[in-house]
Design goal:
4 strands; MetalPrtase_cat_dom_sf_prd; YbeY; 6 helices; Collagenase (Catalytic Domain); alpha/beta; 4-stranded mixed sheet; metalloendopeptidase activity
């Protein structure tokens, strides 16, 4: 598994965010049973940076906490059986890994939301990565039915990693 980290801003976290990101990405890949070696790109930016990306790609003129840009499409969320036929088009020829997609996180929002929810910045950062990884696997939360599948998965992954709302 490769995690390509791009840091666009000063990151004031008191934990090793690069190590945590790698652990969360790898754990989520294993948890969901993704059958290939994978590559994920993670960009850390600020509210201004994510606002611009949100405006450019989603036509939403506001900052957000995390954006997910999946490279793969699924007939059904978490069903990797049809990927083999498209595998050739979705792998990095340099590494042989399948490119799952891009995650963009606002460091500002991690800090704001951790304070608002009363838990650690470490927990919020991990949550946003799990949330985004599930989007990269085709899960969504736009309907109550979809949320009923995705949200318990998020909780279960964080619980299994012993990342609590301390």
């Amino acid at each position: 598994m490769s995690l390509n980290l791009e840091v666009e801003v000063d990151v004031p976290f008191t934990f090793d965010y690069e190590a945590l990101a790698g652990e969360v990405v790898a754990f989520t890949i294993d948890h969901e049973g993704f059958p290939y070696e994978a590559e994920v790109n993670l960009t850390l930016t600020d509210n201004e940076g994510i606002h611009e990306i949100n405006r450019m790609y989603r036509q939403i003129d506001a900052p957000t906490d995390v954006l997910s840009f999946p490279m793969l499409s699924y007939e059904q969320a978490g069903d990797f059986s049809a990927l083999e036929e498209d595998y050739e088009d979705n792998f990095n020829p340099d590494t042989g890994e399948i490119m799952l997609g891009d995650i963009v996180i606002s460091v500002d929002r991690v800090r704001e939301q951790a304070a608002a929810y009363g838990h650690s910045e470490r927990r919020e950062f991990a949550f946003l990565i799990v949330h985004s990884m599930l989007h990269l696997f085709g899960y969504d939360h736009m309907t109550p039915e979809d949320a009923a599948v995705m949200e318990p998965k998020q909780r279960q992954i964080l619980e299994e990693m012993n990342i609590s709302r301390d």
